[in-house]
Amino acid sequence: MVLASPNPIRSEGILRREIPVVDLSGERSEVAKLIVKACEEYGFFKVINHGISNQVIAKTEEAGFGFFGKPVLEKKVAAPAYGCKNIGVNGDMGEVEYLLLSATTHSISHISKTISTDPLNLSKTLSAYTEAVKELACEILEVMAEGLGVPDTWVFSRLIRDDESDSVLRLNHYPPIINRESCKEKDKDKDKSSQFSKVGFGEHSDPQILTILRSNDVGGLQISLPDGVWIPVTPDPSAFYVNVGDVLQVMTNGRFVSVRHRAMTNSYKCRMSVAYFGAPPLHATIVAPSVMVTPQRPSLFRPFTWAEYKKATYSLRLGDTRIQLFRNCKH
């Protein structure tokens, strides 16, 4: 649900740095402060004690690997929900295969009948996961609103809770560049940095409101700081990672940063991530709450609908910056 860049891969340095960690079991006002700070400085943070059961997570990972382990011809039956290497429709490519589903019970049930010999079980698994991460996304958005001092604390989450929400679930699978079984023993001693040699999914920001991401125990995700430095994200299968999307940057009037990120492939191990992209209904008007707009911080973006922004997203390359197209010309 993200669209890679027409520009060459940026060659800026890699910086080892701990990303913000938010414990959702903490005191709510402190959690709100931590989330707001992380969103302003990084547009990205890690969530622990999130309340999603290990069983729901494990079943979803098992289902994902089960699907991606099928022969290619069997996976292609799921097209257009299934794709390989092509990212979007404008010529962007990556070392990735994916399964993209509308985050509704009906859509998940329909695709499950196409790709599984046990469609009822697969549908129940993916629906349970989708509902769990949706609730997590809404909880986080409501805590964000509290931290920002927005009186209507459902102002962000209401867009995702709407029955016509355009949210999607995406499973990404990054096969290893080198067959693990064929690697010589000496390869195990190579420097870790040499394991991530190819871009699996190019630099981009997510256009939606919020992304809830989880991966297996294989690294590859990197986030970009404003100065162009890349920070590798250490994988933690027990945690979830949260990305601020373009819409949330607009709705916070630029206080939160829509994080640019990319996924590198691992030379020896396959990586699988599952991302829930929380999005508004197509007809929803995207505008910052009045409390976010002041004489000192006037409105940075003109109002637009999610349908308009989505159309702009798909008309551009993955790495292009879309949000600038909707800046208020007065500022």
Automatic annotation (TrEMBL):
Broadest EC class assigned to this enzyme: oxidoreductase
Pathway assignment: Plant hormone biosynthesis; gibberellin biosynthesis; Hormone biosynthesis
Pfam families (UniProt xref): 2OG-FeII_Oxy, DIOX_N
Keyword field contains Oxidoreductase: yes
Domain Fe2OG dioxygenase positions: 164-280
EC number: 1.14.11.13
Gene Ontology MF, one: metal ion binding
Swiss-Prot/TrEMBL keywords: Dioxygenase, Iron, Metal-binding, Oxidoreductase
Metal-binding in keyword set: yes
Record-given protein name: gibberellin 2beta-dioxygenase
Organism: Sphenostylis stenocarpa
